[in-house]
Amino acid sequence: MTTMCALQVRALSEDLGGLALVDLPMPVPSAGEALVRIEAAALGFPDLLMTKGRYQARPPLPFVPGMEGAGVVVEAGEGCQFKPGDEVIVGGLTGGVAQYGCFASGAMMPKPASLDMGQAASLRAAYLTAWVALVRRGMAQPGETLLVHGAAGGVGLAAVDLGKALGLRVIAAASSDEKRAAIQQLYAPDHVIDSAPGFRDRVLAITEGRGADLVYDPVGGDVFDESTRCIAFDGRLLVIGFAGGRIPQIGVNIALIKGFSVVGVRAGEYGRRFPERGAENLAQVQRLASDGRIRPHVHARYALADWKQAFAGMESRSVIGRSVILPHG
Predict the structure, then answer these.
(1) Which of 26, 49, 173, 254 pairs as cysteine with 195 (C-beta 3.0–4.6 A)?
(2) Do 246 and 187 fall into the same domain?
(3) Are strands 169-174 and 145-148 parallel, antiparallel or unpaired?
């Protein structure tokens, strides 16, 4: 085989018009890399933003989208720690939505046997973000109350799942009855609430006026603003992203008077700045998955030819968890 099929972003566009399926040369692994047959590629909101040129990282054109996937090693370069036949999870800025890809050893981890390929592809980015947010940056303690915004999305749902595994009291906030019912069925958080304006009163009622110790916010905008009104003294407001569109601002007098911290979370950058801790983070996520204590949810699985449907689901905000593309399906 000399070529493979991949999805390629050839031009940035608001309507996915710059994307197309193409045949590309079969990649060849360099030293320290492995050639992986990609069995599943999980899509996240950053993948959609990158096709529009609206993500913080802008890969040079053309590029193959897909920040995470899972598959089987078919060839290993010199010095690679993995060998042919190993089932692995791969991660990076790009390269996932293709039949094959070359990945450095450091961008790969063994696939937990407890997860199928679609679940494994959905593990790394979302759960690593949740782990760094809650454990490393948020210093969560068992029994504390965690409010998760955007709880039906990939990173939000991971925070709900991980929060329960860590012994937190989890309040999951989502925008529709369908999403709230799915969250309850999947992970049984302590409370599931409507994320519409006015959630402050619901959170304060649940916490008997104290507020949430941790607020996990991938939404930003008005959600961030209202969260400052239902966070506990000594609380940690974890800034994950701005899916709502508006980047909020805060007067530092509010944080001073109310005694809470605003904490930025960049899981990938955290691992790059602190490599030993980054390796520990991945190992902890893998261990929890292997032990069956966390389990990613796959919303839908699409053949490579149906990639537009997968991206459209993210655009409409109808995905619960992760959508997965099967490059050989």
Answers:
(1) 173
(2) yes
(3) parallel
